[in-house]
Write a structure and sequence with these properties.
Helices cover 39% and strands 19% of the residues. The chain is built from 28 helices and 23 strands. Helix 9 crosses helix 10. The longest helix has 32 residues, at 218-249.
């Protein structure tokens, strides 16, 4: 018997095909249960108006406001040359601010009749900036007359729920759809164990669903949210606890380095001593490597805190103990770079089997998708025979053809690009004396992650943090360059780049786009409405900017470009020339974001900096100031001073503390995006849980989950929880849990 037929009912059957199609395509909602879990983002109180003063730019908003005045203008245009074009401008207000609405062409007639001064309505649309004023172009609206039966019924509660909506489906239409399926909430299966729910005084699930969609008071909303937060935190933590439990059941080969092997020889070569932090983290890692269960550790470290050195020492410890270590990088450029820096750090210790190799030496091989056949064949052979103790590569390492002699440790650089499928594939390659044993796993990330996010996204990993920068690192000065308000600041930025080059240094210029895309918005033939053109130019592109700089402000300097669509050999050649100091200025996309290490590069200019996220800007900035000369990072933007984008850039300029920035980043993004779903476009499974604010809920849920899983790993006695887990771990979520 199917336990949740009502909630699994497809929306097509309940709402009709047209609405269901939009919900599936734009909101990822397919079943009645999905829609019931699509919670209001906030609530409007009848009689209390939204704050128009703090509307976010470029976002879809729903506001409740009153029409202050409406004017019809005529103008001449290509379509209406004799001054017959019509534009209706409506100003709405809510006491805190005013907002302009515009309607064009034939779209003016209905609003002209209906939106009379004094009328109250809900308006939905995308906020844009036109002539430095906020406006909504062609918003959808629903009059709040308060007399028609339907309006009274739909907005019957004192609180009007406003749903996360899309251009294709306004909040009030989603509200009506929810009204239709709400009776099914009675059949929702409760995932929380009864004892836990009663012990914490939480509402039953059907009641919580009812109260979140149709609250009568603010207390209803608070109770419902408290309960639904627990659901999310608990189910997620049970999933992670089960994975941790499964991992502890796996066998692994303990790897303990000998007293005078390659690790000792390497340490003797080091020209500096390890920082306190590096020593502490190394102890944690070595303790894990010595156990008979696989290590699963996340190594977080600020850009430049020496993570690579810590990882390399762990790899050498495993080689000492007779195993092999593999390091996985997200891109070929990075794999080549890691290979270069590891062989440089190891010197003759990396020349195993060669003349001039040291006595404890091993081979360090590179394996990437674009290698020539002969080089690739040799690398595969070295891995299979165990000749190569260390291999560095891209995901090409995971292919079936790659066989290891005895894989003991996998180091993954930048976890957010590496999923569970890949982890499992590598695990399958670890054979030891004919048995399958899991390799130890060390994940490195330079994106600082607040504790709760680590508990949520990387909840199946133990965490180590490197928070000291090695001695000799220079401070980086960061400044926002407001190109639109103060064009002379931009001119000064290019002068600063010339000054850095004149004193023997190099610079990066980063742009959001490459510039040879087919999908260039200007070429698509679609004319945008006139009011959009000023605000929405395409992001600046590497190829155009490099060209303009070489001909203009940076004439006479050696300028080269680097982007993801270049042939790997060309990329490597460009990077080599830059690293060797033959190129003055490298104009690049974010391919340089992780791991690129050129100590002589001291300046970075980030164009259209508002188009990058906070942690991305922090990552990019970490590429300068890696030597003894101070670094300079200039964030160029055309956004107006009051915009949230400018505040974000101001925050980045004001602190070099990545943990502080990651907090700001999370507070500014909507919580669901914390788990990286913003990039993939799939729906986030965090709907009411705010990773930063709900630190306590997450920590408590983690404890409860661990206890539940320890007592009943298969969840035999909790069918509701099993169902919720299956829903969470369907494919899309499985990926989200992994890729973080």
């Amino acid at each position: 018997m199917d336990p949740v037929p009502a909630l699994q009912e497809p929306l097509k059957k309940v709402l009709g095909p047209a609405t269901a199609k939009v919900m599936a395509e734009h909101l990822g909602l397919h079943t009645v249960g999905d829609l019931l879990h699509h919670y209001p983002r906030r609530y409007e109180e009848r009689g209390q108006l939204t704050h128009l003063a703090d509307l976010p730019m470029d976002e879809h908003v729903t506001v409740v406001a009153q029409v202050a005045d409406a004017r019809l203008h005529t103008f001449a245009s290509a379509k209406a040359p004799r001054g017959k074009g019509q534009r209706l401008e409506v100003t709405i207000t809510d006491g805190s601010g005013r907002l302009q609405l515009v309607f064009f062409g034939n779209g003016v007639h209905k609003p002209h009749k209906e939106l009379l001064p004094g009328t109250r309505a809900m308006f939905a649309g995308k906020v844009s900036l036109f002539n430095r004023r906020l406006q909504l172009a062609h918003p959808a609206y629903e009059l709040l007359r308060g007399d028609s039966e339907e309006a009274v019924e739909t907005w019957a509660g004192a609180l009007i729920p406003l749903y996360p909506a899309t251009a294709k489906l306004e909040s009030w239409k989603i509200g009506k759809a929810v009204q239709t399926v709400l009776p099914s909430a009675q059949e929702a299966l409760d995932p929380l164990p009864g004892t836990l729910r009663e012990g914490r005084g939480l509402l039953p699930l059907p009641e919580a669903l009812l109260k979140i969609h149709r609250p009568h008071t603010k207390a209803d909303v608070a109770d419902a949210r408290a309960r639904l937060k627990w659901d999310e935190a608990f189910v997620l933590q049970v999933a992670l606890a089960r994975r941790r439990h499964a991992e502890t059941q796996l066998p692994a080969v303990p790897r303990v380095p000998g007293p005078n092997g390659i690790l000792a020889a390497f340490d003797d070569r080091l020209p500096f001593t390890l920082t306190e932090g590096q020593r502490k983290v190394t102890q944690e890692i070595f303790a894990d490597l010595a156990t008979a269960h696989p290590m699963h550790r996340l190594l977080q470290g600020e850009v430049g805190s020496g993570k690579t050195l810590v990882a390399l020492r762990a790899m050498l410890a495993v080689v000492d103990a007779g195993g092999q270590a593999a390091m996985l990088a997200p891109t070929e450029v990075l794999a080549q770079q890691h290979h270069r820096s590891v062989t440089e750090m190891m010197g003759e210790l990396a020349e195993g089997g060669m003349l001039g190799g040291a006595e404890h030496a091993t081979k360090v091989v590179l394996l990437t998708g674009s290698m020539g056949t002969a080089a690739r064949r040799q690398a595969l052979l070295d891995l299979a025979t165990g000749e190569a103790g260390i291999v560095i590569g891209t995901h090409a390492l995971i292919e079936d053809k790659v066989q290891f002699h005895d894989l003991g440790l996998v180091v993954v650089d930048e976890q957010h690009r590496f999923g569970v499928e890949q982890r499992d594939a590598l695990r399958g390659k670890a054979h030891s004396q004919g048995e399958r044993r899991s390799p130890h796993l060390l994940v490195m990330t330079a994106t600082p992650i607040p504790r709760t996010v680590a508990m949520t996204v990387f909840g199946d990993l133990e965490t180590s943090v490197l928070d000291q920068l090695p001695a000799g690192r220079s401070p980086i000065a960061s400044h926002v360059v407001p190109a639109a308000d103060k064009p002379h600041f931009l001119a000064r930025a290019w002068e600063r780049v010339r000054e850095e080059v004149a004193s023997g240094h190099q610079a990066y210029v980063v742009c959001p786009r490459i510039g040879d895309e087919e999908d260039d918005p200007g070429k698509s033939g679609k004319k945008k409405p006139p009011q959009d053109e000023a605000d929405k130019r395409p992001p600046l592109a590497v190829l155009d900017v490099a060209d303009q700089l070489a001909r203009g402000p940076l004439t006479g300097l050696k300028v080269e470009v680097l982007h993801g669509r270049m042939h790997p050999d060309d990329k490597d050649a460009v990077m080599r020339r830059f690293a060797a100091g033959e190129t003055d200025v490298l104009v690049a996309t974010t391919v340089i974001e992780v791991g690129v290490n050129v100590p002589n590069a001291t300046a970075m200019v980030i164009m259209d900096a508002d188009r990058f996220g906070v942690s991305q800007l922090h990552q990019l900035r970490g590429r300068v100031g890696r030597g003894s000369a101070p670094g300079l990072c200039l964030l160029v933007t055309e956004m107006p001073e009051a915009s949230p984008a400018r505040q974000r850039l101001g925050a980045v300029a004001s602190t070099l503390d990545g943990f502080e920035l990651s907090r700001i980043d999370l507070e500014q993004r909507r919580e669901g995006d914390v788990l990286g779903q913003a990039q993939s476009g799939a729906r986030s499974s965090l709907r009411v849980l705010a990773v930063i604010e709900d630190e306590e809920v997450i920590a408590e849920a983690r404890q409860e989950a661990a206890a539940v899983v320890a007592a009943d790993p298969e969840l035999q006695h909790l069918p509701g929880l099993r169902t919720a887990l299956d829903a969470l771990l369907d494919e899309e979520r499985e990926q989200y849990l992994e890729k973080g």
